[in-house]
UniProtKB/TrEMBL annotation:
A GO CC annotation given for this chain: plasma membrane
Subcellular location: Membrane
Entry protein name: SPFH/Band 7/PHB domain protein
Region feature Disordered, mapped onto this chain: 354-411
Pfam assignment, any one: Band_7
Organism annotation: Corynebacterium tapiri
Residue runs in coiled coils: none
Signal peptide: none
Domain Band span(s) in chain numbering: 20-178
Mode of membrane association: Single-pass membrane protein
Annotated keywords: Membrane, Transmembrane, Transmembrane helix
């Protein structure tokens, strides 16, 4: 029985020695080892062999980067306003031995140094500068903390101001100020918009008036040109009509004369016609009395003897002269079928088609292009109308197959 108890005690002692001689340090941690109460070494990341009951692990230190948020701190600004500022510090332990032996509690040390540095930095700024200078405050805090904690084996990687809370009254005043500033900018933008709208409206009215005046100007020019061409064409038509009327009268006289010659009228017929017209002549209102001289018969007898020929019975008879071939052709009736034809000649139809094409052609181009061209053209320059004037001044030629052609054939 005693032997079993002794064996169990020996086994327990061996297990205790093994447990005291082996230390397992996880990755990301470091252990400070002391030998008989004195620092000997720092071990990390693995299995460490210790001397039982002589070497001990003082403390395990987390070597990963840590983020610590401190509660809001009351800080007074340069303009005597109290603000509450939250700080977030990111640091990492590079030398665990210094963090253990250099300071009692490095977390509290970092907090106190951060608060003191923050009050020093913010105390030299106004509230507005504090709210708008976060980057400057962060850089100064990081520099001060890094310099102060270097002897503790710490490395300050980042310092951020999480929140800056001014007093409620100041916050309300700031909100009212921001609201007034926004309303001011809104009113300025509204006024700018109204001004731009008025300018655009005025520009549009100006452009519309310019285009309207330009259109009226072109319309007046085209109307004047149309009136001028109409007058020219009307004069040409009247000239051609007078010419054709004169040609017709000349032709009529020639036809009457040829017909008289071809009919070989004798003085007896003329005398008979004269006697028929006497009652009509006497029927006039101004003709109240006619006087025939007594020698009128003798005069007619002498006139007949001078132009007549005495026959075998002693009677003077008038013989009409012979009619030549040209007079006989002149006396023959003309072909007047084409005079009453209502069909238009090809030349007139072509002229009407050209006039319709010109009438249907747009007067002006695009109003915007017309306005730009008018603005580029000098004020003393007027649109050229030479082509239209040249067309209008051309004489009107009689169409073939018309009455004018018949008059020219009569000549």
């Amino acid at each position: 029985m005693f032997g079993l108890i002794l064996l169990a005690a020996i086994i327990a002692l061996v297990v205790l020695l093994i447990a005291k001689s082996i230390a397992l340090i996880p990755q990301g941690e470091a252990a400070v080892v002391e030998r008989l109460g004195k620092y000997t070494r720092t071990v990390s990341g693995g299995l460490t062999v210790l001397v039982p009951f002589i070497d001990t692990v003082r403390e395990r230190v987390d070597t990963r980067e840590r983020v610590v948020s401190f509660p809001p701190q009351a800080v007074i600004t340069q303009d005597n306003l109290t603000v509450a500022i939250d700080i977030v510090v990111t640091f990492q332990i590079n030398e665990p031995a210094r963090a253990i032996y250099g300071v009692d509690n490095y977390i509290v040390g970092v907090e106190q140094i951060s608060v003191a540095t923050l009050r020093d930095v913010v105390g030299g700024m106004t509230l507005e500068e504090t709210l708008t200078s976060r980057d400057t405050i962060n850089r100064r805090l990081r520099g001060e903390l890094d310099a102060a904690t270097a002897k503790w084996g710490l490395r300050i990687s980042r310092v951020e101001l999480k929140a800056i809370d001014p007093p409620p009254s100041i916050q309300q005043s700031m909100e009212m100020q921001m609201k007034a500033d926004r309303e001011k900018r809104a009113m300025i933008l509204t006024a700018e918009g109204q001004r731009e709208s008025d300018i655009k409206t005025a520009e549009g009215k100006k452009q519309a008036r310019i285009l309207s005046a330009e259109g009226e100007k072109h319309a007046a020019i085209l109307q004047a040109e149309a009136d001028r061409q109409a007058e020219i064409l009307r004069a040409e038509g009247e000239r051609a009509a007078k010419y054709l009327r004169a040609q017709g009268e000349a032709r009529s006289i020639q036809k009457v004369n040829a017909a008289i010659k071809a009919s070989r009228i004798t003085p007896e017929v003329l005398a008979y016609q004269y006697l028929e017209k006497l009652p009509e002549m006497a029927d006039g209102q101004a003709s109240t009395m006619w006087m025939i001289p007594s020698q009128f018969g003798d005069t007619l007898e002498k006139f007949a003897k001078s132009f007549a020929t005495q026959d075998a019975e002693g009677v003077f008879r008038y013989e009409a002269p012979g009619v030549d071939e040209e007079t006989r052709k002149m006396a023959e009736p003309d072909n007047t079928d084409s005079w009453f034809s209502t069909a238009s000649s090809p030349e007139i139809a072509e002229a009407v088609a050209q006039a319709n094409a010109v009438a249907q052609k747009p007067v002006d181009e695009d109003p915007a292009q017309l306005a730009q061209r008018s603005l580029r053209r000098p004020d003393n320059e007027t649109p050229s109308l030479e082509p239209k004037a040249q067309v209008a001044e051309q004489p009107v030629e009689p169409a073939e197959g018309s009455h004018a052609a018949s008059a020219e054939e009569l000549e």
